[in-house]
Amino acid sequence: AKAESVVIGSDHYSLNIPKGYCFLKPSEPSDSIVIKFLNDGNKGINKVIMSFADCGQLKLWRAGDIPNLNDFGYILVPTLYVHKKINISPKKYLFEMDKLYNSQGSKIINSGISRAEALIEKHLPSVKVNETKNLGVLSKDSHALYWGLLQHLNTDLGKSKHVVGLMAMSFMKGKPVNFYLWKEYLGNRTIYDLEQLTALWVTDIQAAN
């Protein structure tokens, strides 16, 4: 997808989304449900910079032909740092995040899981969360730290499925910038492929900024 220029605080960022994905539009009734869910879920915690989904699924979702989106993503910046910077190098930031999440990561992530599950059932009533499994830090590179989650969901059509989420914790122009991708889980290969896609996405954005 073509990169978009986004202003966060006083800084300009060139941000893109992975190939095959399209932006969610507030003017689309179905998209607005997900956009509201993301905004409400991150209120006072993160600013949602952009959100998107697999183009093929999005077309079917908007037409009412599928009940839920499986493959989607978004970019978040902690609200505290929208207009503020941290005087630290990206390398040092990732080192400190790695240390923090290895010692307290489960506690940090688990504290947000119950809130997220309640919001899913409020905004997406066709989905029920049965279980969320914390996969921990899956990998790291010079651009980001990659954390995984696995959720077991039931839909109102009686379908049971698993979805995997990847969070890439990154640091750009003095701000924490976090990248998220979700995909239906179809085996361990799904996690590997999603990890590779997320890493490529973050690397491309880092190179453009």
Question: What's the short version?
Answer:
The chain has 209 residues and is α+β, with helices and mostly antiparallel strands. It is built from four helices and nine strands. Strand 6 and strand 7 form a beta hairpin.
Helicity level:
25-40%
Treating each run of at least 4 consecutive H or I residues as one helix, how many helices?
A: 4
The tally of beta strands, per DSSP, is 9
| Sequence stretches where pLDDT stays below 50 over 5 or more residues | none
The overall average pLDDT, rounded, is: 86
Helix/strand order: EEEHEHEHEEEEH
Determine Rg (CA atoms, Å).
17 Å
Q: Tell me which oligomeric state these chains represent.
A: single chain
- State the shape: globular
Strand order of the largest sheet: 3-4-5-9-8-7-6
- Helix and strand content put the structural class at alpha+beta
As a percent range, the share of strand residues is: 35-45%
C-alpha end-to-end distance: 16 Å
Question: What does this molecule look like?
Answer:
- It is a single chain.
- With 209 residues, the protein is α+β, with helices and mostly antiparallel strands.
- Helices cover 37% and strands 37% of the residues.
- The protein is built from four helices and nine strands.
- It has helices at residues 29-42, 55-62, 90-123, 188-208, and strands at residues 4-8, 11-15, 21-23, 46-54, 72-78, 127-140, 144-155, 160-172, 175-184.
- The strands form two sheets. The chain has a seven-stranded antiparallel β-sheet, sandwiched between helices. Strands 1-2 form a two-stranded antiparallel ribbon.
- Helix 1 (29-42) crosses helix 3.
- The relative contact order is 0.16.
